[in-house]
Specification:
heterodimer; A: 765 residues; mainly alpha; two-stranded parallel ribbon; 63% helix; 1% strand; globular; B: 183 residues; transmembrane (chain A); TMC_dom (chain A); Transmembrane channel-like protein (chain A)
């Protein structure tokens, strides 16, 4: 009975691995039907006796599970959006351009989840269960601004009704619980704000880990350059003749380059000049980075002065100066860096990395300068707020004392002022939120405009003016644009950084970003297909994917810092937002712990935040990091040792074989091909003969005598066949038999040694 | 046993799902594309001739298209025609979820231009010529070609017999970072 069961299991396993066998479909189909028939017949038989029903039930559930899994996988694949669009782009432009769109789609998914959090847990409760517009001061447009609150220009500036809406922090009320469900809005706001970072961090690191362990072995630089170029350089997803031509040209160039590289390894002419030029280039770039940072700081300071003037007298340019300057810098500096980088004469791949690093530094510098300038503004607002707050409190006290002295009661109703007339503080959080939203919007506008003008208009001009122009516009100067992958990816990453920073102060920003990514996908797909041409050097999108993820992670950390800092140190405004009236924003967590949770949890938290407990925990984590680091170093060393051993074994093998003449003369019998079990060259198996080998394997090395391997001496030669003999298609002259061990001193037979050989059969052992 | 019926039978579909790396939608899409190739021809044909297969946009620009057809074809006349099952085999080997073994096995056979089970100098030369395009100015000079082939053999030929056989090929390919991505 058990052997039958084993056989059934074996057949099931065979069915599961059938797709991995390189046989023809006909043969596999036949085998599958056989195995399935066998399993069905005997599975029923196995279920005889007691427990039969249970067994049959289990089997049925297992089958249903498999079917369900398969359907679910199918469904998941069908759910992935834009797959066909991206494949079309890929076939025209190669996989590197398509990788940008795949990245864009991934971002869209991430933002969708963040939007769901923000919307479902913060915006929706406030809208459905909170007080409506106009009921309390923070939700109403102040009287002074009311007559202009609906103007388009004001709305586009995110003032007026926009400012006092769910889009921004200031709208949210600070009641501890709202509505029938007793939903704790302030707590939810804080937790969602931090949870956005937590979730993004988790997703980014998980994606990085998944990418990294597939590319981990690729560090063998230089070991197989030519072979890789030969065997793996073609991009099979190319479906467009023009791209194919470009790919041919780039492959040829890379072949020629490597051949030349290999020959001229020692040539390093004039290294001093090159070094000097590189230092000069770096100096120039540092200057321009510093210049751009200073420019931004200056402009933000000016905008603060403008804010103090009357808004009507400022031109559009002066009002939006900051965003305009930042976008301009983002447009102008990268080409500038590229031209300066031509002084350096690096290898293109290295040059690309430098370029990306510099653009990254540019964006980062700009963003942080902007933040610092904004920070000054926040401090100024805080100062102003103090005075207004004092004024409000004083006014309220006056009112109470007057009322009680006039009416002589102690039961004083709250002052009956219309919400729009109440004195309002400057509410710095909303101001910060507005700044971020304006920055994002202007970034969107600049990107779309650039595509429209830089690509579309250019393509139109080149196409239509070409008929009446002196030189060939398509081949010559402007020609059609190429898709700038790195620029677009970096733009996407930094846009996401701004969203992360601004989401806490402007909950509507995430929704805005989702819309932006959606339209971007369609717009850029259209633009790429209609206005761009494939790159001159079509290169495959390979391990660079982790590079961009690493950048994203860095940007995530850098955008986390300002938000956490403000949460921890700056006091919230006294009259707007969900944390108003509290000393610090995180106090809401303390209040919740005190009031809502049972007492012992409060005790737990008090103990847990005791420094005596935290310091050892931190110490433990540091030690764990150190330990893991040491372990990974050890593994790396062990890897290197193994590689060296393999190399030595291979060299030994080479030395032995070098004296022997041999030839591969075995024809592959395609139908009888058995899967190759091991891909490694043999470690040290030269001495002991391997056991019975796969049937049909024949030693190609007729020259090997049986005794050779057994003796371990590698010298004997039998020059039966010369190296120059062509490899004939041998007819089957004898049935396959167990091979002599001699020819197969290395574990798996060298590839084509399956099938029938010709010539004298190898002497058996 | 390739089917030319306009609909694919349900159990046949599930068997194909079991035996290939393709999902159900992919198999149905393959069936549709295959039927389109057949549609202008006689309905009774069970295999599509090579020229029609090569007219597929995905294969049209591929330098190895003829080799691909030859490798996946099971026809007795060795004319490169593909039945539907051959077509599915092709798609399965090229699919994203196929394993390293399958891909390297078929890659080796595609590159083996003379079908002798090894990649010798002639095969490699034809390979390079396929990769560098048809026009004169993109081809390599004989000197460069010789240098290139000797470099490749030096890198990949472990037993120094002047040819690359399947296990050497698989060894090289398994180290390639691009290849491992799908593995």
């Amino acid at each position: 009975m058990t052997s039958l069961k084993e056989e059934v299991e074996e057949k099931k396993k065979l069915i599961a691995t059938l797709r991995n066998k390189p046989w023809r479909m006909k043969r596999r189909l036949k085998l599958l039907k056989e195995c399935q028939a066998f399993v069905e017949e005997f599975e029923g038989a196995l279920g005889k006796g007691k427990g039969r029903k249970l067994y049959a039930y289990k089997v049925m559930m297992a089958k249903k599970m498999i079917k369900f899994n398969r359907d679910f996988d199918n469904f998941k694949t069908a759910c992935i959006p834009w797959e066909r669009k991206i494949k079309e782009v890929e076939s025209h432009f190669g996989s590197s351009v398509a990788s940008y769109f795949i990245f864009l789609r991934w971002m869209y998914g991430l933002n969708l989840v963040l939007f769901a959090f923000m919307f479902g847990l913060v915006v929706l409760p406030e809208v459905m269960m909170g007080l409506p517009y106009g009921s309390i001061p923070r939700k109403t447009v102040p009287r002074a601004e009311q007559d202009r609150a609906m103007d388009i220009s004001v709305l586009l500036d995110f003032g007026g009704y926009c400012k006092y809406s769910i889009l921004f922090y200031g709208f949210y009320n600070d009641e501890r619980t709202i509505g029938v469900l007793q939903f704790r809005l302030p707590l939810s706001y804080l937790l969602v704000g931090l949870g956005i970072f937590g979730y993004s961090l988790m997703v980014v690191i998980r994606t990085m880990a998944r990418n990294s362990d597939e590319g981990g072995d690729g560090g063998d630089d230089g070991q197989f350059t030519f072979a890789f170029k030969m065997f793996t350089s073609w991009d099979y997803l190319i479906g467009n003749p023009e791209t194919a031509d470009n790919k041919y040209a780039s492959i040829t160039t890379s072949f020629k380059e490597s051949i030349v590289d290999e020959q001229e390894n020692q040539k390093d002419e004039n290294i001093h000049l090159r070094r000097f030029l590189r230092v000069l280039a770096n100096f120039l770039i540092l200057c321009s980075l510093g210049g751009s940072g200073f420019l931004i700081y200056f402009v933000v300071k000016r905008s603060q002065e403008f804010a103090n003037l009357d808004q009507d007298e400022l031109s559009w340019f002066e009002k939006n100066e900051v965003e305009f300057v930042m976008s301009l810098l983002g447009l102008v500096c990268p080409p500038l860096f590229e031209t300066i980088a031509e002084l350096e004469e690096y290898h293109p791949r290295i040059a690309l990395k430098w370029q990306l690093g510099r653009i990254f530094a540019l964006f980062l510098g700009n963003l942080y300068t902007f933040l610092f300038a904004l920070f000054d503004e926040v401090n100024a607002k805080l100062e102003k707020e103090k005075s207004i707050r004092n004024a409000t409190i004083w006014g309220l006290n006056e009112y109470y004392s007057n009322y009680s002295s006039y009416h002589n009661t102690t039961d004083i109703p709250p002052p009956d002022i219309h919400p729009a007339d109440v004195i309002r503080g400057p509410c710095w959080e909303t101001a910060v939120g507005i700044e971020f939203v304006k920055l994002t919007v202007s970034d969107i506008q600049v990107t779309y405009m650039t595509i429209l003008i830089g690509d579309f208009l250019r393509a139109m001009i080149v196409r239509f003016l070409n008929y009446c122009w002196c030189w060939d516009l398509e081949a010559g100067f402007p020609s059609y644009g190429e898709f700038d992958i790195s620029g677009n990816v970096l733009g996407l990453i930094f846009n996401q950084g701004m969203i992360w920073m601004g989401a806490f102060y402007a909950p509507g920003l995430v929704g805005l970003n989702v819309l932006r990514l959606l339209t971007s996908m369609y717009y850029q797909c259209w633009a790429v297909m209609s206005c761009n041409v494939p790159h001159e050097r079509v290169f495959k999108a390979s391990k660079s994917n982790n590079f961009y993820m690493g950048l994203l992670l860095l940007v995530l950390f850098l955008s986390l810092l300002p938000v956490v800092y403000t949460i921890m140190t700056l006091p919230p405004s006294f009259d707007c937002g969900p944390f108003s009236g509290r000393e610090q924003m995180y106090n809401v967590v303390m209040e919740t712990i005190e009031n809502d949770l049972p007492a012992f949890i409060g005790n737990i938290f008090t103990y847990a935040t005791n420094p005596g407990l935290i310091l050892p925990a931190v110490l433990l984590m540091v030690l764990a990091i150190y330990y893991l680091n040491a372990t990974s170093k050890n593994y790396q060393n062990a890897n290197l040792e193994l590689k060296k051993k393999m190399q030595m074994a291979r060299d030994e093998e080479k030395n032995r074989r070098n004296n022997k003449e041999n030839t591969n003369q075995v024809m592959q019998d395609l139908e009888d091909l058995l899967p190759n079990r091991s891909l490694l060259p043999p470690a040290a198996e030269e001495e002991k003969p391997p056991p019975v080998l796969e049937k049909g394997s024949k030693s190609p090395k007729v020259a090997k005598r049986p005794g050779a391997a057994a003796n371990g001496k590698g010298v004997n030669i039998q020059k039966d066949v010369s190296l120059a003999a062509p490899n004939p298609k041998a007819a089957v002259t004898h049935p396959p038999g167990p091979r002599g061990p001699s020819g197969n001193a290395r574990g798996p037979p060298p590839g084509p040694a399956r099938g029938r050989g010709r010539g004298t059969p190898p002497s058996r052992r | 046993m390739g089917t030319t019926a306009s609909q694919l039978g349900k159990d046949l579909l599930s068997e194909y799902q079991e035996l290939t790396f393709l999902t159900k939608q992919e198999i149905l899409l393959a069936h549709k594309r295959y039927s389109e190739l057949l549609s202008k021809e006689d309905r009774n044909l069970t295999s599509v001739p090579m020229e029609k297969v090569l007219s597929l946009p995905e294969l049209k620009s591929n330098p190895f298209r003829k080799r691909i057809c030859h490798v996946f074809s099971t026809s007795d006349m060795k004319d490169g025609s593909l039945t539907f099952e051959d077509f599915l085999d092709l798609l399965s080997a090229f699919s994203d979820s196929a394993t390293l073994e399958i891909k390297s096995h078929y890659a080796f056979r595609i590159f083996d231009f003379d079908d002798d089970g090894t990649l010798d100098g002639g095969d490699l030369e034809k390979l390079v010529n396929c990769l560098t395009g048809k026009t004169e100015d993109t081809r390599l000079t004989p000197e460069e070609m010789r240098q290139l082939i000797s470099n490749i053999l030096e890198e990949s030929d472990i037993d120094k017999d002047g040819t690359v056989n399947l296990s050497e090929f698989q060894h090289v390919i398994s180290r390639s970072p691009d290849f491992v991505r799908d593995g």
